[in-house]
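TEACHING EXERCISE
Course module: macromolecular assemblies
Task: Read the component lines below, then compare them to the predicted structure of the full complex.
Student: A.B.
Group: 4
Components provided:
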Amino acid sequence: MIKIIMRKMFVVLVVLMAQISVSFAQDLLRIDITQGNVDPLPIAINPFQGQDNQPSMIGADIANVVKSDLNRSGLFQSINPAGFIEKDLRVNARPRFGDWRIINTQALVIGKVSNLEDGRISIEFRLWDVVAEQQMMGLQLISTPSNWRWVGHLVADAIYERLTGETGYFDSRIVYVDETGPKNRRVKRLAIMDQDGHNPRLITTGQSLALTPRFSPTAQEITYLSYANRQPRVFLLNIETGQQEIVGDFPGMTFAPRFSPDGQKIIMSLERNGNSNIYTLDLRTRVTRRLTNTLAIDTAPCYAPDGERIVFESDRAGRQQLYVMDADGKNVQRISYGEGRYATPVWSPRGDLIAFTKQLKGRFLIGVMKPDGSGERILTEGYHNEGPAWSPNGRVLTFFREQKGEKAGPGLWTVDVTGYNERPLKTPGFASDPAWSPLIR
Amino acid sequence: MVRQNRVDYIRSSSLNREIVLSTVLHVLVVLSAFIVLPTPEKISLPDYALPIDVITIDEFTRMTNQDPKPETKADQAEKIEKPPANIRQETAPPPPADNTDAMPLLDPKPAPTPKPKEADSMPEPVNLVGDVVPLARPRPAKPERKPLLDTAAVQALLDKTPDLPEPTPPKPVADLPPGERMSLSEIDAFRAQIRACWSVPAGAKNAESLVVRVRVQLDTSGRPIAKKVINRAQLTDSYFLSAAESVLRAIERCQPYKMPPEKYESWREMELNFDPSKMLNG
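Instructor-supplied answer key:
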C-alpha cells in the first residue's frame, strides 16, 4: 500500500518537475538549446578586384590563399563563386545581403588590390555578417607584390580570428624530417614549409641523421638532435640565418630536446646505464639541472605554456604512462590510467589539453586529455600514428602516419582538436616528426 | 500525462482514501515546487533594439598599430630545393667530446655524496656552419596593416539601428491558462528547428563558459522582431563574442518559427540558453 503511494508520488513528481524545469514557474518561457551542428560556416570570398574594379591576377591569387586556408581549417566552407548572384562588388559599398542569403552565405569577404606609387600594393578588404547585415571587420595591408601569399595568410588569419574568437595560425610554418632512400637506410634531413604545404625547402644536407626538430615558442629557431658519427648532439638552429650551434654534447644518449615557453631553456632527457632522467639546460648560462632521479626511463618532457608544470612519460610504474610535475621536479603525479601505453605528451599552447600517442593492442592512436588526466578523447587511430604537435593557437594537431608495407613511408596529417577534419598535408617526399612554428608576425 | 496517470490509478485501485491522499500529495508537491524553486532574476530590458554591440573597426585592428618588424618570410619557390653541392665546409670536424664536462651524471665514478649536484657548467658551444643549408634570402618587408577607416557610408551603416516597437511586457507564463502554454512537444519542435541552424563553436577553449543567454521577441508569424544577449558583460571576450554572434545568426536564419498561433502569449517573448559545452566531452 505504502509502496504504491510512493511509486505514484514519484511519477507525479517526475512529470511535474519536467514541466517546471522547462518552462513554467518563470515569467518567460525559458528553453535550453544544447545541440547544434558542427558544419563549417558558409563563407563567400570574392576575388579581390584591381584598379577601377577590373579583375586582378594578384587579387584572385590572394583570395585563393584565403579560401584554401579557411577551408583547410574545417571551420569554414567557401561557396563556389559560380553561384554568386551579386557581381561587381565594391569594397566601399554595402552589398545586397538578400542576394547572399539566398545562396546560404553567412559571411562575405570583399576586397581590392591597388598599386601604390612606390611599387608596393595595398590590399583592402571587408568582412560582412550577411545575416545581421553588419560589417564585422575592415582592414588594409600594404606590402610588396611578391608577398602576395603571405598577405593571403594574414587576411585569412584576420577573418578566422574575427569569426571564431581564436587566434589564427595560417601565418606559420612547419618543420619536419624529410625521409628518402630505402627503409633500412633512410636519409633524414630537416625540411621546412608553410603550414599549407607550400614553399618546402631542405635545411640540412643529410650528412648526419637529423631527428626530433622542435620550434622555439618565441623565435624562428629550432632545436633538434643530430647523429654524426653515431653521437647524438643537441643543436640549436636559427632558420633565418642558418647559424647553428651545439648546445649539448653529452656522452651517452640524449633524447627529445624541447624549448621552454620563454625560449630560454631546453628540457630533455639524458640516458645513462639504461636509466633516463629529465634535465633542463639554460641556454644563456649553459647550466644543466636535473629534475627527475629514478631508475626508470623518464623522457619526452614538455612544459605547460605558463612554464610552471612539465608533462613527461615514464615507465616507473611498469608501463609507459604520463606524469605531470612542477617545473622544479617536485610534486610528480601520474595522469594517465587508461589501457595501453602513453607516450610523447605535448601540452597545448592554449593550456587546456595534453596531446599524446597511445599504443593499444598493436595500434597507434593520437588523443588528448585534460592536464589532470580527465576527459581523454581519441582523435585518430591506425597502424602507426605518432608525434603530435600543436598549431600555435592550440586548435589543430599535426602528426605523422605510416602505412604497413616495405615501400610505404610516413606522411604528415592534421586533425582538428574536436577530432573532425582529418587531412593529409602534402610534402614532396616521405615526412615524419612535424613541429609547428609560432606565428611569424 | 498527469491526467492519464490519475485515470489509470483510479481504475487500478479505486480506493477513495488513496485518491484523497494522492490529491493532497499532488497539491503539496506543486506548492513545494513554487516555494523551493527560485524565482528568476528580473532583468530589465530598457531597449529591445540593439541585437549586439557594434564593434568598431579600431578595436579589431588594434594589433595593426604595432611597429612592423622586418621578418623573413619564405619566398615563392614552388619546388623543394636541393641543397647546394658546394657545401664543403660541412666537413668541419665536430668538436671532440670534452672531458671537462663535469655533469654529475656523466662522471664515471659518482662522488660519494648521495645527492648529486644540481647545476654544473657545460662546455662552450661551438659554431658549426656544418650540416645546414643557410636560408639566406632577400628579407621581404613584413606587410603593414592598418584598419580600414573609411567612408561616411560605412559609418552610417554602423549607426543604422532599426527602430523596434516598444513591446508591452508579456504576461508571466505561469499566469496563463494551461491551454495557452506551450506543450513539451511544441517546445521540442521549436528546439529542433533552431538546432538545425546553429553552428556550434565546438572545440573552443572552456566551452562551458560560452553559454549564451538571449531574450527573443517574436511577432505572431514567428519572426524575431528583437533579440538581445542577456549576459552581455561577457561580450568583451572574443570567444564569447563569436559564440554570441553564432547564436544571433542561428535565430535569424531559422525564422519563421512554426509556433502554435493560439498560444502566442506564451512564446511572444522567450529566453533561450545556448549551451555548446555538451557538444563535446572535452
